[in-house]
Structure formats: structure tokens, C-alpha cells
Amino acid sequence: MTQTKKNVMLVPVDFSEISLNALEHAAQTAKHFDNDLIILSIVEENLLTSIFSNNEEKEAQAREKTIPELEKLAISIEEKYGVSCKPEVRVGRIYKTVIETAVEFGCDCIIMGTHGASGFTRIVGSNAGKVINYSTVPVIVVKSNKVNNAYKNIVFPLDLSVESKQKVKMAIHLGKAYKSTIHILYNKVSDEFLNNKMIANLHQVENIFIENGIEFTVKEVDESSSDFAEETLKFAEYSQADLIMIMTQSEDKAFTEYLIDTYAQRIVNAEGTVPVMCVNPNRDVFKSEFVI
Questions:
Q1: Class for domain 153-279, per CATH?
Q2: 8-142 and 153-279: same fold?
Q3: Burial class (CB in 10 A: 0-12, 13-18, 19+), 70
Q4: Which of 47, 84, 177, 273 has a CA 20 to 30 Å removed from the CA of 235?
Q5: Which CATH number fits domain 8-142: 3.40.50.620, 3.40.50.300, 3.30.565.10, 3.40.50.720?
Q6: Which alpha helices (DSSP H) does 212-259 contain, by range?
């Protein structure tokens, strides 16, 4: 009998409160999908350069200091949630090591806090921002210790870009798994041609959700409300959303020019309690689905 390989979620931790909140969030999600977890502790390369003369010594020292505490944390998660939790300690640049570890273990998702003691400060321009920029799998940013309500209410901002609709597959996965309601939010525009294009996008997404048995609502943001990011955040809090799904980049940018766009910056950086799933445009290496 062939055994199906479980999907794996990666959680960077530095033992700060927000990173431990992210771990709890990840554990709840992993339990629901019967996924495995990898908890990753990173010792910054620059921190050890002046102390140790070679990489082997750095790695050994980092492991000796960190692995017992990380193993203890992994055991507590396994006992509490019944999910397999593998501890990993690495030395390197934080964002680069997170990305490399996700690729190495074939992780399908990265779940992380907005900040922490080891460089996870404000998202944009930080290590966490770089993880979001360069990750080929979705990154879920956890902002608080809010109890995960199983992604029952998901806010789905929709715009005119082709990339915006690439969230549909993920929304269907989550919607079926949690019997979610997907709240589609779109910005009405005054230009008739552009507005017709927006409505066509909306109808296409609605039809896909209907075909897949996904419950959804639609909310139009009037053109007089020019700040779509602010309206998205307000709606998420008002609807007691469990997740906001956003695209982080436009696909027409060269890979070396990848930056989190302004809308995504504001959604991720804003204060609040609603986790944000950041999905990058689908290039050939894009792989990001949960096991249903």
C-alpha cells in the first residue's frame, strides 16, 4: 500500500512571544490538515563571525546551545496537537536560510510572526519582508495570539490583475477543508471599461466558487473610498475574519526586481489581529497547496 507523503509547514522561531504565537497557529493548522511541522531556529552568521573561526565550529556551537530548547518546544507541540514536529538549527542569513530550508524540505507553506528578537522587525525591508518577496510558497504572517478560528471567514480582495485570481485555487482548498465563507472584496472604479473588466473578473471567480461548492459573499468598495488597503483591513476586522489572502507582487516584474507592492505592504504591516496569507505570482516553480 502506497503511503501518501505528508505536506510540511515551516515555522521560524526565535522564542519571542510573536514567533511562539505563530508556532501555535501553525500547529493548529497542521493538525487540521494532518501535516508535519519543521520549527527552525537561525543563528545569524554575522553574530558568530567574530567569535568562531570556521563554519563547522559555528554550526556545532549553535546546535549545542539551541537544540535542547528547540527539542523541548517540539515535544510540547507534538504532545499538545499530535503533529510531527522536527526541530532544525541553522547558521546563516535569516531570510536566505528560511527560504533554503523551505526548499530543502519541500515545505508547502511558511508561517511566521511579524517580528521577534532575531530580526523579524517590521515586515517590509526586514528579513520577514525578504522571505515574503522570494518565497515560492505562501507565507502566512501571524500578528497576534488570536485563537485560530479554523479559517472560517476568509477575506479575498480582488483587483484587475491576472495575478489576483491566482489565489482562487488556495481559497478553494481552504474553503473545502474548513467549510469557509470567502468574502470577495473589490473596488468599484469610475472608468466604464475598467469597471466592466472588474465585473468580468468577479463573475469568473464567483462561477469557480459555485462550481466547487464554496460559500461566498461579495462586497463592493465604492470608488469614493480610494484607500482599498484601509477598507480591506476595516472589513476584515468587522467581519471577524480569520485570514486575509493577498497577492504580493505583479508578475510583470523581473525576479530581481521583486518587491512587495504598496497594497500588500500596508495589509501586512498594519496593526490588527487577522493573519495574512501572502501568495506570490505563479511562476514555473510555484507550488502551494495544502493536502485536503
A1: alpha beta
A2: yes
A3: buried
A4: 177
A5: 3.40.50.620
A6: 228-238
Report CA torsion sign: 88, 290, 18, 46. Answer: positive
pLDDT band at residue 286 under the 50/70/90 scheme: very low
Spatial distance between the Cα atoms of 238 and 233, rounded to a whole number of angstroms: 9
Instruction: List, edge to edge, every strand of the sheet that includes 36-44.
Output: 85-92, 36-44, 8-12, 109-113, 139-142, 276-279, 243-247, 153-158, 181-187, 215-221
Name the burial class of residue 172, with classes exposed (0-12), middle (13-18) and buried (19+) by CB atoms within 10 angstroms of its CB.
buried
Return d(Cα 137, Cα 93) in angstroms, integer.
19
Q: How far apart are CA 173 and CA 20, in angstroms?
A: 26
- Closest listed residue to residue 198, CA positions, set 162, 173, 172, 231: 162
CA distances from 127 to 131, 135, 260 (A): 6, 12, 13
d(CA 140, CA 267): 12
| pLDDT digits 0-9 by tens, 240-262 | 999 999 987 644 444 333 445 67
**Which residues share a beta bridge with 12?**
40
Q: What is the pLDDT of residues 82-104, one digit of tens each?
A: 999 999 998 888 888 999 999 99
- Asked if pLDDT for residue 128 goes beyond 80, the answer is no
* Residue 185 amino acid letter: L
pLDDT (0 to 100) of residue 103: 95
Provide the residue ranges of all domains of the chain, joining segments of one domain with +: 8-142, 153-279
